[in-house]
Sequence to fold (106 residues):
Amino acid sequence: MIRCMCVVQAGQTPDKSQAALTEKLNTFSEKAFGQPASVHWTAVPAASGFTAAKPSTSSIVSFTAEQPVAQETRVSLLQDLCDLWTGETGCSINEIVAVINDPQPQ
Fold:
């Protein structure tokens, strides 16, 4: 399984949206990496995340690949991931931080 971490602001993704996002992230992972995702959600407590001195509306979505990813492939995957997230949540591209990590050296 491919590890996926999603960090969102508390109350930002209702259970219904979170379930739909988990499904879509799993489909993305299978297409991108040939394996399903193990999606872990972390909610930043209210009044704990800020951007420009206002409560943050940003999310972080991070995948860790099992093999190094070529830069050209990474760019394409990040675009797909951002499109998936913004399409499901309605947030702007400025409210998503998408990451595709290479595996950590052993």
Summary: The first strand starts at residue 2 and ends at 9.
